[in-house]
Every structure is written in structure tokens, then in C-alpha cells.
Amino acid sequence: MEKILTHTGIGVPLRQSNVDTDQIIPAVYLKRITRTGFEDALFAGWRRDENFILNKEPFNAGSVLVAGPDFGTGSSREHAVWALKDYGFKAVISARFADIFRGNSGKQGLVAAEVAQSDIELIWKELENNPGTTVSVDLESRTVQCGSISAPFQIDDYTRWRLMEGLDDIGLTLQQEDAITAYEATRPLYKPKTLPAKTAG
Amino acid sequence: MSVMQSPQTLAEKVWNAHVVRHGEGNGEARQPDLIYIDLHLLHEVTSPQAFEGLRLAGRQLRRPDLTIATEDHNTPTLEIDKPIADLTSRTQIETLRENCKEFGVRLHSLGDKEQGIVHVVGPQLGLTQPGMTVVCGDSHTSTHGAFGALAFGIGTSEVEHVMATQSLSLKPFKTMAINVEGTLKPAVTAKDIILAVIAKIGTGGGQGYVLEYRGSAIRSLSMDARMTICNMSIEAGARAGMIAPDETTFEYVKGRPHAPQGEDWDAAVANWNTLHSDEGASFDAEVFLNADELESFVTWGTNPGQGVSLSQSVPSPEDYEDENDRKACERALTYMGLTGGTPMKDIRVDTVFLGSCTNSRMEDLRAAAEVVKGKVKDPNVRMIVVPGSARVRLEAEAEGLDQIFKDFGAEWRFAGCSMCLGMNPDQLDEGERCASTSNRNFEGRQGKGGRTHLVSPLVAAATAVRGTLSSPSDLANTPAAV
Ligand code: SF4
Q1: ipTM value for the complex
Q2: Contacts of A35 in chain B (CB under 8 A)
């Protein structure tokens, strides 16, 4: 996973609260066998409306989504984060995230930055009045910057550390490599192995 | 000087034997433990994205020798030598084949003698053994707990995690003892026990728990029957179900292809003999069931907790005090096309499905064959028999069970998940009613609009004879085949 210290990109104002994972990625896309290439699935329902924000320049090239409160509610599908990342989003800003979504984001290198709704209103105005304005999300100082607006954001220490170190769950566990190898040396010999394959003939 | 160990439950013993690293902290704030996984089972539905994740990150599969894959969810049960018609199904299976080749995973493909439902194949090969940790991207992994293994389903990202590290970060589960004492009446089976347990504690009653089934009624069950019980732990919301290993378990494992041999066997049994909850071990919750009182159990609704004894009637919404229960009952009755007060035995079915990882092993097939032997099938009922694995199918054929089913008028199919979830062509039509030995009666599970009654293999067989939900004891006066 890539390390993220700070990210700056075009901000996309999404004036919408309770954006659930069914909206982020509809269920029909879950049948796929890949874990990339979900960019077309992101907000697939809404994108059919030509006035949807992501159908407009320069927002279609955005990488920081600024959404209403309760982002990522509903089913726990990991695909929601995949779709946002595949589209090109590096950070989502909202006043409140659903727990599972926030957890999945942290694990997969998408910054979920919790910003007070009053600040989000200001950012929305700035982005709407000056389309193409960038938003900076700085993990070091835990602040977001947009035009002249500077606002603090919340993110738990552990997730922040992981994002800054670029550690996904597996990367974290692999730091325990020595402990795993040591454990393996103590496993009883009678434990079965699948290889070489044996069958009843 | 010996230190007195505080008494432990079976689940705690297995857990503690697999801790790679203890999580720091105490109580609520305690970090997860890193737990080693002894066996990782794969199938075509939940593995492709995990394999791709490995590839994208440039990671290796850590222990191909602790990993095994089978094709089961999508496989056809007819004409298995022809290409799979459904594109999604075919892609999933072809992807599994490519991934297993690339990463060196042992795979039992359609047509192979060891192919079958992943939860039937593992035990049958002797790969599932007492005291192990077993995982699979499939909720019915709890089946393997019948051997005193800690076995549970995981999500796709966890599948990838196990692939890369052979371990998982987990917070300890709570423990619940399910005590079933007494003797089962004839024709009352493991399936009836577990359906009664779920009806008692509810579909969410086991949430966060590992269930340990114990008591004299459990001890007297065969391994096939114990697997049926542990299989459906998930239907009570539990993470896993376990049964302490005993002579029955050892007898089952002994001599199987991957069972320990010689000195290894002795060392294994010495360890396995310690795998039981200690006297005085405390469980976070406890449930008691009297086996003497149990009867054949069947579901009437759209979740596995909506069940009653076969001799009872469909409940009415008014039977419930709780507003939510009343609404749930109403909704279920509408979907199922049933009226409260109808005797369960008056319910006519269109289809009987004998199969799934719950009830598709030799003992299940034998029990059903015994019931239908020499009988005539109700002409309006179709019966599909789907062995859990190619090996079960072969064994059944060697015993002549296939002929009994065919003579009776049932369809004898190839192994797989089949109508348990209808990912392959074996599906119910809109409104079609099925007596099914599987584990989930959710709306649409067996096909859009399909109506499922969960039953034991004995009830399934008797139902195919009479056309209405029946137990073998109802068959006394049915005419024999001429
Ligand atoms: S038989 Fe049914 S429950 Fe069992 S693994 Fe297959 S689909 Fe899942």
C-alpha cells in the first residue's frame, strides 16, 4: 500500500447525506471476479444523470470527495472502497462515516477525514463557486485546506499511522514474520499437509 | 512445582494453542491476537479477488501445503463433461483453475474423484482433524468444528490475509455451551436437534459466540451427524460450533488419506484426548435441551429460526406478542404462501432436495434410501439427490443407493452445492415449494420466488413418498412398489 502523508487534488462537492454503499456501488457489480476496474461502477446509478457532479468538468478529475454526513452506511461490501479508489479518489471528507466503511477505508489506503459539518458547508461553497479548486488533506497536521479555508479533521491515531506508513492489514501482519516463522517451528509434526496430495485411490 | 491451570473450555484450548502473538492491553481495549491457521479451504466464489490482491501486491501464498481448493458452488450436477453454460459460473471456475495453477494450490476440479462441496471434501480426505484451526471464505466452515476444530468462515480480504500470512488477527470469541442430554426418538436426527436449537436461541442468539455442543445425545451421534449440527451453527448467528473429539472422532479420522500414521498417530491422539472443556470451565452462556422430547423439526418461514415440530401447525401472526415478530411472521407467511393454523403435515411440496453440506454424506443418503426403498414416489413431486462429493457418490453407488433412488423415481446427480443456493441451473421456479435438507430458507435462496422448508433427510424422503411434509412413521400404510 502506498504511503500517504498529504494529498492534494481537485475537490468534488457531493451535497448528499447518508450516501450508502448501495449508491457507491450497486449490487450488480459484485459478481465480478476482479478487485480493480470498478471505476465505472462508482455511483453507477447517479452517473446516469448527466447533471451528476462527476459527469461535469473539472469534477470528473477530482480526487477528494467532500460529502454530507453518514457516508458509507449500509452493507459492508469492501467493493465500495475499491470503487472510490479505482475512480481516483484518495480521500473522502464527511462529518460522519459509517464504522465499517471507515474501517475498510483505513485498511485499503483511502483517507476518511472527519470534518465538522460547518466547515464542510464552507468547502462546498468554495468548490461550487470556484470549480477545480484543490483540497489538501494533510495527515501530519490533521488539517484540510481548501482555498482560504483551513479546517481540522479527526482520524484515529492507529489508522493515521497505518496510512502514513502505507501498511495494510497484511503488511502489518508481515511485520510479525519472525513470530509466525517461530510459531511454525513449534507446530506438531502430525498436523496434516495438503501437499503432496493423497487420495483414497 | 506445577502451576494449577484454571479450567478452560475446548474453544479456549484450541485458541491458545494457535496464538502466534498475544494482543496487548486488557478487557475492551485488548488488541486482537494473531492466530495461526492450520488449514485454508478455497472455492471458486470467494477466492478470485483474494488471489488478485496477492498478485497486485506482489505477495506469495505462504503455505500452499496448508491450502486446498475444490469447485462446488457453480458446478453443474448434470452433464458435467460439457462446458458450463452460465458465463459467470464458467469464469469463476476457470479463474480458480488458473489461480491454483499459478500459486501451486491443490485443486479438485469437476470430474475429479475428490471434487465436491468443500466442507464434505476436507473431512473425507482426513484433512480436518481435532484441535485444528480451519478457515474458508464460506460461512458453513463451522461444519469442521464437529472434529473439535475451531473452524469459521471469513471474508475476502481475510482470505487474502490468510493466503499471505497463514494467520489472522482476531479478538477471542465468547463461548456458549449447548447441552443436549437424553436419547433421541427413532426418526429424530441431528438436523432436528440443530433446528430446535436455532428455534430456541434465535437466528441471532449465537452472535459473537463459539457454540460447544455437548451432552449424552451429542456423544451418541456419528461424525456425519455431528457435522450436520456444527454446519448450522452459523444459522444461529454463531462464529463457530464445536464438539469435543472422542473415540467416534478418532475412528472416523483413522486411515483416511491425510490422517497421521504410526508414531504421529499416537502423538496426535494423545493431544486430541486433552481436547475437551475442563471440569468447572465457565462458559459465557449456557443452553439446555432435552433430547427425549425432540421430534422431527421443520421450518415454515423464511429464516431457519422459524421452525416447529412436524406434528404442529403453521403459526399465526396473532401467536406473537412482539410487534416485530408478528410482522416477520406475516411477511414470511405471505412469501411462503401459507395460512396460520395449517397443520405442517398438510403442506404439499413440489420438489424434494436431498443434498448440501448439511446433509449429503453417506449416512444421510443411506437414511433416505432406507425410507424410499421399494416405495413409489408421489407422481407430482420431483426429487433430486445430490451427493456432497464425487467420493460420496461413488461409495453410494457401490452400495447400490443410486439404484434405490432411481427405482423410486428420484434424480441421481453429480456432486456440488446445487439447489442449496441455486448458483448453478438447479433452482426452484417462482412459487415452487421444496422440502430441502439444506441450511437456509431465505427468500429466493433456492431460486427467485422459491419456497423452502428445511427438513432432515428422513423427512425429505418420507415427503417424497407422500407428497406432503411427512415423517417415516406416516408411511406405514403407503403402498409398496409393484
Ligand atoms: S452446500 Fe450450500 S451452504 Fe454448503 S457450501 Fe455449498 S452453498 Fe454453502
Answers
A1: 0.93
A2: 49, 52-53, 56
